[in-house]
Amino acid sequence: MSGKVIDTLVIGGGLHGLSAALHLARAGRRVTILERSWIGRHSSGATAAGVRTLNRDPSEIPISLEAMEMWHNIEAIVGDDCGFHAHGQLNIAENASHLPKLERRLAWMREAGYEHEELIDRAELLKLVPAISPHCVAALIARRDGAADPHRTLQAFRRSAEAAGVVIHEGVGVDAIEPAGSDWRLRTEAGDFVAPTLINAAGAWSAKIAAMLGDDIPLGHKASMMIVTERIAPLLKPVVSVVGRPLSFKQSDQGTLVIGGGLQGSADIEAQKSFVHFRELSKGARAATDLFPSTKSLRIVRTWAGMEATTKDHLPVICASPNAKGAFHAFGFSGHGFQLVPVVGAIMADLIIRGSTQRSIEGFDARRLMQRQAAA
Ligand SMILES: Cc1cc2nc3c(=O)[nH]c(=O)nc-3n(C[C@H](O)[C@H](O)[C@H](O)COP(=O)(O)OP(=O)(O)OC[C@H]3O[C@@H](n4cnc5c(N)ncnc54)[C@H](O)[C@@H]3O)c2cc1C
Asked: Which residue, by CA, sits nearest to atom 27 of ligand 1?
């Protein structure tokens, strides 16, 4: 379709597609993003936007810590602070029986040489979060963690990508992929797009794109739900989660409380729709009011669910395609990919431009999930 020469086609205009495109364009590559709906339509527009290193899987910690440095420098990267505030993230023990879990995590962290998580006692917890119910006993904290504004983040990444020369086509879905000499031809209703390299950043639909490339990567799906309340006076600054309960709780800059924690609605992947299950969602509201009793009479103003691909080990797929030369994967973030956005884009640029990366991505190779190939 486009007469312009394209070096890399990115399938999917979520934050991971935007970030990869931005890093590649800044390195001089001509990049086009094909987005079936509109930028941020799915997970990246539905996200809680928690910027969390706390309680990360060991194999994610190195890239998560690098991403955190990037978040602390985000204005220099994308020209906007993305509404990022580093007021810390806390994982709270409601009672003494939850404490050993936090202590074990801390012992492991220290043994592995990590210092970014600490255990705080009840007195410090109450100082940091005075509104918390006094029955809580302790918390694990990552003080440099925080949260951002997802829509400001999307706009900032989009603006920066376009300023670096990235071309974005919205309303253009990829229906088929075929080899064209040493290039890839992407078939869409708007015509064909051809380039030697492509990135599969298609979120919940990534397995479908991978299959078009000959990679059979089994993925599951999540449809995480969120609640937003009416605006209230300042209540808390850190982001709070609780051991053994589905809760992530924070206050936005506008004063609303933003409540999530992974409670699941349902998704119709074919129809590209997700659905809120109110009975299930009430568990999140209950956890919130147990932990913050002063919020009991607040009105809920909005709820939603957002779709994302999950892997069986809850770790992402970030790698070159095992079967298709010139194709690369970045998906399967399993509900915690927002924080990783700046660094994963840099990794994709490394893989495409240099053919390798010094960042630690061994745990994210698609082959770990591809049983057929593993058995062969
Ligand atoms: C409710 C919720 C809360 C979350 N909270 C957090 C959090 O607090 N912290 C955190 O780190 N992470 C969180 N996450 C996860 C995080 O938001 C995601 O990991 C991240 O946004 C994934 O971005 P993405 O670009 O990979 O996917 P998406 O944003 O879903 O983008 C994929 C895009 O690909 C497009 N696409 C699909 N198929 C095609 C095709 N054939 N052709 C063209 N385009 C196509 C889709 O339309 C979509 O726009 C949350 C997610 C949800 C849903």
From this structure: 203
